[in-house]
Design a protein that fits this description.
The complex is a heterodimer. Chain A is mainly β. Chain A has no helices and eleven strands. Chain A is globular. In chain A, strands 2, 4, 5, 6, 9, 10 and 11 form a seven-stranded mixed β-sheet that branches. Chain A has a four-stranded antiparallel β-sheet with strand order 1-3-8-7, with no helix packed on it. Helices cover 0% and strands 52% of the residues of chain B. By secondary structure, chain B is mainly β. In chain B, the strands form two sheets. In chain B, strands 2, 4, 5, 9, 10 and 11 form a six-stranded mixed β-sheet that branches. Chain B has a five-stranded antiparallel β-sheet with strand order 1-3-8-7-6, with no helix packed on it. The chains are: A mainly beta, B mainly beta. At the A-B interface, β5, β9 and β10 of A face β4, β5 and β10 of B.
């Protein structure tokens, strides 16, 4: 299995631009999570989906952030407009329900200048 | 409010010796705990877990101990190897709260195993 795939691996953008991060979960996994890692806050959950439906988005920092999962094999996290404080590593993770062992992608390092 | 705390940002040990990584939690609803390992430029990978009905779980060189009364868990690596050098994250979940699969992570401990 190819594991969780994220793209791009690195993104550098200017403040005010729209940023879209992409994730392909492991086939057969019915849960998908988006995390953000920063030095100050560590690894924090932004939102998670079950069977393509958002279950908990309480970690989404503000309305500039949105996430979608149009089908079982694809999800996006969008930031519009982006700000320098959004600079972080964003991870996507997936797993099959009834276990807690989430499988993480390699992450997208976002830099907003 | 940090519900999962890893108070040691870093730990250095000699190859062959024991590594002990510690984690404290404050939420009494947490009943399932996991350890993840992370290498640079990679995502975290699952290492070992423990349910609150147990106080110990072992998998090869890795053992996790849970002390519920102290709200403390620890990961023991014996013997430590240079390839174990990575950031280790402790995570917790309130599993019994319905289908709640949210994980709360600590900030991690950087383990360096010296040859």
């Amino acid at each position: 299995d190819a594991g969780v795939i994220q793209s791009p691996r690195h993104e550098v953008t200017e403040m005010g631009q729209e940023v879209t991060l992409r994730c392909k979960p492991i086939s057969g996994h019915d849960y998908l999570f988006w995390y953000r890692q920063t030095m100050m806050r560590g690894l924090e959950l932004l939102i998670y989906f079950n069977n393509n439906v958002p279950i908990d988005d309480s970690g989404m920092p503000e309305d500039r952030f949105s996430a979608k999962m149009p089908n079982a094999s694809f999800s996006t996290l969008k930031i519009q407009p982006s700000e320098p404080r959004d600079s972080a590593v964003y991870f996507c993770a997936s797993f099959k329900g009834r276990t807690y062992e989430q499988y993480f992608g390699p992450g997208t390092r976002l830099t907003v200048t | 409010d940090q519900q999962v705390k890893q108070n040691s940002p870093s730990l250095s040990v000699q190859e062959g010796r024991i590594s002990i990584l510690n984690c404290d939690y404050t939420n009494s609803m947490f009943d399932y705990f996991l350890w993840y390992k992370k290498y640079p430029a990679e995502g975290p990978t699952f290492l070992i877990s423990i349910s609150s009905i147990k106080d110990k779980n072992e998998d090869g060189r890795f053992t996790v101990f849970l002390n519920k009364s102290a709200k403390h868990l620890s990961l023991h690596i014996v013997p430590s190897q240079p390839g174990d050098s990575a950031v280790y994250f402790c995570a917790a979940s309130a599993k019994s709260g319905g289908s709640n699969y949210k994980l709360t992570f600590g900030k991690g401990t950087l383990l360096t195993v010296n040859p």
